[in-house]
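tool=predict chain=A
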Amino acid sequence: MSLTRRQVTVAALAAVPVALSATGTAQAREQRTLYIAGDSTAAQKYSDAAPETGWGMALPFFLHKDLQVANHAVNGRSSKSFVDEGRLDAILGLIRPGDLLVVQFAHNDEKTADPTRYTEPWTTYQDYLRLYLDGARARGARPVLATSVERRKFDASGNAVPTHGDYPAAMRALATEERVALLDIQPLSLALWQKLGVEETKRYFNWTATEQDNTHFNPPGAIAVARLVAGELLRHRVLAPRDVCRLDAEIPESWITWPSPATV
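tool=predict ok
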């Protein structure tokens, strides 16, 4: 499947920091870009989807200005379909030495009935993830794996329960094997949902008067998950203390904005 015009536009915008004149090249190289490859839980949302919010929309609030975020996450994609549609190639055509590539997939890899997206945790899932790792490394960038944020699911006793099966364990094993940093967002998010509880978590997910969505976030949820991601980037020394900010600060929901949908 070819890239949509929206994705081509996003890729072009992501290239702006390095698409400067020859006199500005050295200065541009000092500014790193953090690329996100992932699914709808991280993706940019538009005004037609508000208040749904991807955590990638909130991540810049926790990073200093000299570290830009290029969010290539797209609704409905798995580690496989993202590659098959040429979206990884789009990132690899832009990424530069010193940049970062954060990779979060599992939600759609789990869909066994859809052969265009399904991967098996211990075989094809790991095989596809290696393409991201190898591609970033070949271009002098640093790949980072992130286990998928948990859905909102509680048992009858009010305990938050995991929903991603073997995928987090498979990613952890791959990170160890490949010696890449792992942001273990799955257990951290599960613990956060447990702390918040059955009712309060509704404010963090896309629960509205017309929709009860236990997968995607409202602004508070996106901000909370982005805080986890930034904290893990710091804890694993992917980023230095000078790269992050506001980890303990309140982030106003009003900082989240939804641009108008791009023309396709």
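The first strand starts at residue 32 and ends at 38. The CA atoms of residues 39 and 74 lie 5 Å apart.
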